[in-house]
Amino acid sequence: MHRSMGLIFAAFTAAALVSGASAAGHDNAVSVGTANVYFGDLDLSTSQGAKVLNQRISVAATQACGGAPQFTTHYRDAPTFTKSEFNRCRTVAIHAAIDDVRRLRVADAY
Predict the structure, then answer these.
(1) What is the spatial distance between Cα 34 and Cα 60, in angstroms, rounded to a whole number?
(2) What are the backbone angles phi and psi of residue 43, rounded to the nearest 5°?
(3) What is the value of pTM for the model shown?
(4) Which residues, listed in sequence order, are joined to residue 18 by a DSSP beta bridge?
(5) For 8, which DSSP code?
(6) 46 to each of 25, 51, 53, 104, how far by Cα in Å?
(7) Rounded to whole angstroms, how far apart are CA atoms 86 and 64?
């Protein structure tokens, strides 16, 4: 990875998170979030660097997917659905971020 590029970031778009509106009887509301994960300061060839990157991605995915589901507006009306959609969104976002990092590292090798 070129260190001269400074901080390199991977941006990912969280999966569309359908709020629990259908279960709550309201119009559907969709929230799509993005987050930047900076890793230019990490040595990803070490387990420590990879671990820190995974932690950063995890935090960013949680934020991009709306934060802790119990603090969303529809949690009271549909807690199971809201948690399920949050977990789905977070999983998709984490996988997308990891794919972005892999693509950037491969492109950087050329």
Answers:
(1) 8
(2) -95, 100
(3) 0.70
(4) 30
(5) -
(6) 49, 9, 11, 17
(7) 10
Residue given tokens 């070129």 in the structure block: 2
Rounded Cα distance between 13 and 75, Å, is 22
DSSP string, 14-81: PPPEE-SHHHHTS---EE--EEEEE-TTS-TTSHHHHHHHHHHHHHHHHHHTTS-GGGSTTTTT-HHH
pLDDT digits (tens, 9 = 90+) for 33-72: 788 888 888 898 899 999 999 999 999 889 888 888 888 8
Q: What is d(CA 18, CA 15) in angstroms, rounded to the nearest whole number?
A: 9
Which two structure tokens, joined as six digits, stand for 47? 């387990």
pLDDT band at 32 (very low <50, low <70, confident <90, very high): low
Work out the mean pLDDT of the chain and round it to a whole number: 74
Answer yes or no: are the C-beta atoms of 89 and 14 closer than 8 Å. Answer: yes
